[in-house]
Write a structure and sequence with these properties.
alpha/beta, two-stranded antiparallel sheet, nine-stranded mixed β-sheet
Length: about 400
């Protein structure tokens, strides 16, 4: 295997993917979920752990990713601990792909695990109402801004500007649940209706409980490798075609337009670098901590014009058999949401492109599996975005 920098950029492939145990996981620690996911991803790739010379990890330990590397028995020569919320993993995938293309690493493992649900049930932590009151946040905390309130404010602005309705936002949750109903790994699978969403307890206007993601445990891993390794992998490669990242703000008063997410930049960069257009994409996996995130991200990725997201998500367009299947596993609204969910988007996209999604597999009109997918993560309160275009 080549171990030295190359003279030309190398292609980068996803060689292995996995989920750890997910949903309600009361026994293992977050470290154990990291290890479980890592072992499964390596087994999926058919490669040995000795090929891994890069590690990307965030959200666990005082010295992430050093503590995770030690726990996994790895000594990487390339590391990344970028932490930008839910967009972390798409941004890390972009960094890892660049490093592999440049010859700085050959095989990078992205791994995540969280026991967010189990920790609350066991009293090891409480729900977070605030990210703190230091730095720029000190100017907002006195006004009672919680994370969900910030998303709700943005949704209300979109409703004011473009006439988007609560019913249209509810459609996102209904279709996510319909997709989850065919995924045996999804935490919530019982069908829901628009009326169910609208009549659920209000959390932050206009969001009811069913407009919001679930809280679960779980982890996952993705192994990215240089093209020279593909001949030795167990499965056909899924290629990283293009990536983009963008940070727009952290203070709400510095956000120019509540109806435009940073995916408007990261998506444009990713599609341009991949040489494809939104209309070429077969499936989209987007971060959905709240229903509005799905709607506005689809607009900003270019699947519909600004302000038309409400109409776009109607009539079953996001379902597995819809015009643009979105969050095919059920997303954070129904499948799982253990924290920074962005890595799960990449796992599900690769599963779909490989044709390994089982009962929730998407098929094109001719019966073939998808060829192109986009995974777009959002972090903070629309503070950051990372977008990755994948293809067979």
């Amino acid at each position: 295997m080549p171990r030295s920098p190359q003279r030309h950029p190398r292609k980068v492939a996803v060689a292995g993917i996995s989920l750890s145990d997910c949903g309600r996981v009361d026994g293992p620690t977050p470290y154990a979920l990291h290890a479980q996911a890592a072992r499964r991803a390596l087994a999926d790739s058919g490669l040995g752990r000795d090929v891994v010379d890069g590690l990307a990890s965030a959200g666990l330990g005082t010295l992430a990713p050093a503590e995770v590397a030690e726990y996994l028995g790895l000594s990487p020569r390339w590391v990344d601990s970028t932490s930008v919320g839910g967009a972390t993993w798409e941004v890390m995938a972009a960094h890892a792909a660049d490093a592999i293309a440049a010859g700085h690493a050959n095989a990078v493992l992205l791994v995540y695990g969280s026991t967010a649900r189990a920790d609350i049930r066991a009293g090891r932590r409480t729900s977070n109402l605030s990210f703190g009151a230091r730095g720029p946040l000190q100017f907002e905390v006195p006004y009672g801004h919680t994370l969900i309130a910030k998303y709700a404010m943005a949704a209300r602005r979109h409703m004011h500007e473009y006439g988007t309705t609560a019913e249209q936002l509810a459609e996102v949750a209904v279709q996510a649940r319909a997709n989850a109903s065919r995924n045996p790994d999804a935490m919530l699978r019982d069908p829901i209706t628009v009326d169910d969403v609208l009549s659920a307890p209000v959390i932050a206007d206009p969001f009811t409980r069913l407009h919001c993601c679930i809280r679960s445990d779980g982890g996952c891993a993705v192994l990215l490798v240089a093209e020279e390794y593909v001949a030795d992998t167990a499965k056909a490669p899924v290629w990283v075609l293009g990536t983009g990242e963008h940070v727009s703000h952290t203070t709400m008063s510095e956000w120019d337009d509540f109806t435009v997410s940073p995916a408007a930049v990261s998506g444009r960069l990713a599609f341009g670098r991949a040489g494809v257009r939104p209309g070429d994409i077969d499936i989209a996996e987007v971060y959905d901590a709240f229903t509005y995130m799905t709607l506005v991200t689809l607009e900003d990725l270019g699947f519909c014009a600004k302000g038309e997201g409400g109409a776009f998500v109607e009539k079953g367009r996001l379902r597995l058999d819809g015009a643009l299947p979105v969050n095919t596993d059920g997303g954070g609204l129904s499948a799982c949401h253990p924290g920074m969910r962005g890595l799960f988007l990449l796992v599900e996209a690769v599963r779909q492109l490989r044709g390994e999604a089982g009962g929730h597999q998407v098929r094109r009109a001719d019966g073939s599996v998808p060829e192109l997918a986009v995974a777009s993560g959002t972090g903070g309160w629309f503070c950051s975005s990372g977008t990755v275009v994948l293809g067979r």
